[in-house]
Amino acid sequence: MLMVPSSLSYKPTPPTPSIHFSHSKQIIQCCSNQNSRHHRAESGGILHCEENLNRRLIVFLSVTTSLFPNLSSSAKTKSKSPFDERRLLEQNKRIQKENNVPEEFPSFIREGFQVKVVTPEDYTTRESGLIYRDFAVGEGDCPQAGQQVMFHYVGYNESGRRIDSSYNQGSPARIRMGTNALVPGFEEGIRDMKPGGKRRIIIPPELGPPVGPSTFFSSKQFEVFDVELLSIQNCVRRTIAAFYSDFVCE
Asked: Residues 6 or more apart from 211 whose CB is under 8 A from it?
């Protein structure tokens, strides 16, 4: 059932009572001279009070304008000064130092949802927003869709705190490319690596993992991964008992 808001519903307007000026004129003419003088006195007092109020209002507005000339404009716009950026940058570097980040680790200037990434000149930024740097190129071919890659990695957040590491797990990670099993930015970052290559990948939130109570990540942040690609393997589908199949990679 469609409910119409009361503000939009139609209500008949009651007829406007007519005003009889002739009757008002008779009432005015019937007033005594004493009442007229009393009325003029009251009107003069009201006008005097209104003039005083107007004068006070003008004085108040003049003082307020002189004391706060940019009050209205400053409430609408918020400029970011270089001092604020330096302060946020120094704060981020101090926290990263406490977390023992590796050398030439990127810095992040975060103010609310706005983040500025600060890196040395030897980092490369792609059109997708992914940022990376190669420490070692490696040799051989790059992985293709359907192939399995074996790699070590260490993950960091913006403050330089470690969030995950395959070294702590005791074995390298293995994953097939092109199966949507990796974070989009991570798969893009290792897609053109070669075996033996070492790369640092800075993943923006747009290419990062989903966030929420059911995920490991609780907020939209940049993620940094140091990756070492160990090997690339071809995979073949294997069928078992006509009801089950998997891939064998070697």
From this structure: 217, 218, 219, 220
